[in-house]
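User: I'll paste a sequence; please echo it back and then give the predicted structure.

Assistant: Echoing your sequence first, then the prediction.
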Amino acid sequence: MSSDQFDSALDLLRRLPPHSTSANLDRICTLAPDLTEDLLSSVDQPLQTRQCKKTKRDYLLCDYNRDGDSYRSPWSNEFDPSVEDPEMPSEKARKMEVRMGEAVEIYRELYYEGGISSVYFWDLDDGFAGVVLLKKTTPKGSSEGGWDSIHVFEAIDRARTAHYKLTSTVILRLGTGNEALGDMDLSGNMTRQIEQDMPVQDDASHIVNIGKLVEDMELKMRNLLQEVYFGKAKDIVGDLRSVQPLTEANKDKASHQEMINSMKR
């Protein structure tokens, strides 16, 4: 694999419509199979769902619960399709995975009022790591949308504290259309990272600490999307197309400027 090819593929995906990332990623992998593993682990795309055959519960798919073409269910802790000698979390990591999954389910119901969530843990030499996945979509119709959150974290154990590193990505898709106004699509993604040391007493402390970090990060990213990105988009659309006549808009601007000038005197 050439590093130039990999960089070019990432650059191309950044320039293509975000809502078509999955389809474009499949096309690039077909053209350059040698890039498949690196691209799948590097490119964030909307989360896919699958139903656990054993528990009949839906779960989310990502690179962190994948082994080849198989995915591990957080509910049964089994791969589908089955895998010979799969890489599984330790007993300690699996217990924390289950407890974290229960906590995230409560969070999801309170904040998202529906959707799907999944949590996966794995072991590190000096601690553990994991990912919290959240997905909410609206029914397809004249208007549709989706929200995907991917929170990847590492926890490095120390004396009475733990060092946490959290990398969060939000993928947002909004679309609407009708004959009068035409079609509109607003989609994109945002990634933020934070590192923090927090006190730890036992394994339950890790659940509380990680939950707090994820909740705070989601709140910050939601506010940023609402205030900065949607606010900026509203300002741009307002400048491009005015509801009131142009003469009235110019008159308002002139009055506003006159008031500013009088205050400066």
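The mean pLDDT is 88. The chain is about 40% helix and 30% strand.
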